Amino acid sequence: MASTPTLTPVPDISFSRETENLGILFAGFVTSSLLYGGTIFQTYAYYVRFPRDSNRMRYFVIFLAIVDTATSASVSAVLYHFLIDMYEIPVDVLVAPVSMCVQYALSFILVFVSQLFFAFRVFEVTGGSRLVSLLVVLLSFVSFVFGMTSAGQMFQQRQLSSFALPTMKAVAMTHLGFAVLADVLILFTLYYWLRKEHHPYLRIPERFIDRVSVLIVNRGLSFTLVQLAYLCAFVAVPSHQYWVMFQMVGTKLYVISVFQLLNCRESENGRGVNEEEYLEPPSATSLPAFRPPSPSATRHTYLDIWTYPYADVYSSSQGEYTTTGSSRTGATHTTAETPKAVQHEESQAVHALVSV
Fold first, then answer.
1. How far apart (Å, rounded) are the C-alpha atoms in residues 215 and 259?
2. Contact status, residue 248 vs residue 32, Cβ threshold 8 Å
3. Could you read off the pLDDT of 106-152 as tens digits, one per residue?
4. Contact partners, residue 2, CB within 8 Å, separation at least 6
5. Per-state percent for the chain, helix, strand, coil, to nearest 5
6. Secondary structure (DSSP) of 185-207
């Protein structure tokens, strides 16, 4: 009696590839959406805490917030396209819709503008060193040019597996390589110069977790690592779309790092004071407002506005009373009027002098 041969099930390669592609898009969408929530909060905190910052900086913040919002909307449209519009069509091969191409191009704008901001910070902390800051600008500009070229190639070749072709792969790798070089230069420059040896009055966090947070966010370690992972994933397997997730997340980390760096500054009369400017002697800076506070004055930090939601602060240099953190918003309001309690104390002191 002949035995019936056992049939070995053949794995459905297209189904596994479709699951992989959708999983990558979903992971990128969820992570970038969570980070976008941080962008909204940081934007609100900036405009509340620094109402007297320069108009240039305020326009820069709103520009980043608007472009980041457009990027988030494009990511949502990408996921809607693949999960809803193409519900009955297999997506074993990712073909980029217009929304994905737009998101890809906008990400290069956000990265370039953010790196320019950090190049300006490098210029500030190095005491005006043009060599290092211009090198960061040059690396960022080359990365931006090749990135926009790669975006144009995506508009023409919608299939993402086409990035494995020699021409598209070379352009994308050049863009990523120069971006990583700029990020590494930013990271090491800020880490080296923002120390006690170069800025004696620099405030160093005491807790270990705070130091790690400063290194990850304020020094640029977060987006440097993600950009490096983006480059490694693209070089290792360009035919697979693992790099898409890092591309979506990395853009958000640039914006978050810029906003966090701005919001971690001290607030003095509605203007931001950088960490290296804190408690500098009057002769060390051209800004007279950034001076050591008198014993009767108080300066509130980013965390203090939640601990001390309302405080009246007297500025001896300007002869004004400042109300900080009214209604738990952290806003700073300055008034030339003397509070009634202080007026009463002054009147008592006058009577005492007269009686003497």
1. 15
2. yes
3. 999 999 999 999 999 999 888 888 899 999 999 999 999 999 999 99
4. none
5. 65, 5, 30
6. HHHHHHHHHSSTTT-TTPPPPSS
